[in-house]
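Practice record 12: protein with NAP.
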Amino acid sequence: MITCAPEQVQHLPLPPLPLPASGATRRRLLAVGVIGPGRVGTALLEQLRAAQPRLLRTLGLDLRLCGVVASKRMWLDCDDAELNSRHGGAQIWRPNDLDAFAAHVRGNDGRHALLIDCSASDEVASHYSRWLAAGLHVVTPNKLAGSGPLDRWQAIRAACAEGARFRCEATVCAGLPVVQTLRDLLDTGDELLAAEGMFSGTLAWLCNRHDGQLPFSALVREAHALGYTEPDPRDDLSGLDVARKLVILAREAGWPLSLEEVDLQSLVPAPMAALSREAFFERLDELDAPMAAALTAAREAGGVLRHVAKLDREGRASVRLQVLPASHPFAHTRLTDNVVQFRTRRYCDNPLLVQGPGAGPEVTAAGVFADLLRIAESLAVHA
Ligand SMILES: NC(=O)c1ccc[n+]([C@@H]2O[C@H](COP(=O)([O-])OP(=O)(O)OC[C@H]3O[C@@H](n4cnc5c(N)ncnc54)[C@H](OP(=O)(O)O)[C@@H]3O)[C@@H](O)[C@H]2O)c1
């Protein structure tokens, strides 16, 4: 017989978990170098510095920030100990040299070392496979490796076979657990059938607000003024960034998709693509008629207009405006929310959904940080 405990029973607090030994047996040192101290990189540096004492105390993880490199300059902790301690970090700089930076972080004492690329640089991404082959772990929110040339991506995967790890959670929907969720599904034996999502907060906001009250161009101007768009809104409206995220997800699922294979509908008419930014803004109202027509068509079909990226296991990939039924989960997203829906063998009738804010330096940095911690968890303790 099962009996319920009476409500007034006092719950005794659980005994505290044994703290990890702080001695050498459990302590792991991880040397870290940050590439790209921009918006995300700066937020990450703040998060790392704030978490260092806690991670050492609770996990025995000794994170050592060894250097920072920007596009022109780099700062290494070895440069001047006295200056460094006086200024709370490296203050003197030398010219950017990515390989010298990587060698400095790696050291020559066999320690665990990790590089975090918070740039949007293709040049930096082209170094990953070499760094991984040399035993450095790499974490990044930079989409250019995951969505760039397929042979470069394959070289990165091959380099990981030597033991170093590459993680890129924040490349898709920033801090939302999208890549990790997909990996967990696949690692536990599930099979991806299709993925569908709204991967652009800007386009989600524009679609949510585009109800016919204001012309589409007015909404683009408003989004620009609010800082929701890139400095040049065509970078959002072209859908290219969304296509990159779709390619990253496809490759994570083991499907060798290339960016050129994505059926990409740009919301920027071809003649406006080559204009200067100022001229583009002057002619912005040329977007109004096609967008108004798309809205009318959606309404006549009893649906809503959304900007959707789609992928299936037959290798079809598309990024375009779509009419969705009003009952579709993507019809009810909030403001700039990103959303992704995985249809798998296990989550077949009722797909698995991840939804929430998909941009911003702090949440992106937190996604990068979480990747770092997953790698750190797997590190062996050096005797
Ligand atoms: N911001 C977001 O909400 C968000 C969301 C998801 C993903 N991401 C991705 O995160 C990355 C960073 O975004 P962000 O907004 O922080 O960009 P950002 O503010 O423009 O910062 C980029 C940084 O990269 C550095 N950099 C450029 N080329 C470099 C090179 N060759 N070597 C070393 N450093 C180099 C720049 O150096 P200088 O300072 O010298 O110019 C700058 O510090 C991008 O890949 C972006 O797509 C961003």
